[in-house]
């Protein structure tokens, strides 16, 4: 078992350019200190510089990092594309092992919107539409109905508000860290 009954675990998934990182940053900004962001891109691409594949080392590192932060009393947001077939087992175990409430959200953005949003990113010149299409998986939901689907019509602020309210983070004080 990991975390406490008071810690919140939030898993935020979706395709590239669906808004995951912006939502995660917004949650941290709204909550304040005591909310750890465990980003797939940072751990996989920056820390390990590894490709996304089944059984890759970043899967265990994401799990370990989230568990450590929960054990230290932080609320945790795990965010990334986190394809169900690569990360589903780890995320299911993490949720099951967490003593407190766990929430899952899937940002469901159509491919055409993904392409438009991607064009505004710093890596737009390095990743073309064909690469985006190869990564894109429509409604790549985890089994068991554990995720709330949030569509592209939900604005950034609406999505952050919803998650803050759903998880109870809106009513908790930031941790003094």
If you had to describe this structure to a student in words, what would you say it looks like?
The protein has 177 residues and is α/β, with parallel strands linked by helices. The protein has a single domain (9-171), classed as Rossmann fold. Helices cover 43% and strands 16% of the residues. It contains 7 helices and 5 strands. It has helices at 20-31, 40-47, 57-71, 84-97, 111-118, 129-135, 156-167; strands at residues 9-14, 35-39, 75-80, 102-108, 147-151. Helix 1 (20-31) packs across helix 7 and helix 3 packs parallel to helix 4. The chain is globular and about 45 Å long.
Gap between N and C termini: 23 Å
Largest sheet: 5 strands, parallel
- Label the CATH architecture: 3-Layer(aba) Sandwich
Average pLDDT: 92
Comma- or semicolon-separated keywords:
single chain, 177 residues, alpha/beta, Rossmann fold, 5-stranded parallel β-sheet, 7 helices, 5 strands, 16% strand, globular
Topology of this structure?
Blueprint: E1 9-14, H1 20-31, E2 35-39, H2 40-47, H3 57-71, E3 75-80, H4 84-97, E4 102-108, H5 111-118, H6 129-135, E5 147-151, H7 156-167
Parallel strand pairs: 1-3, 1-4, 2-3, 4-5
Helix pairs in contact: 1-7, 3-4
Write a compact overview of the structure shown.
The protein contains seven helices and five strands.
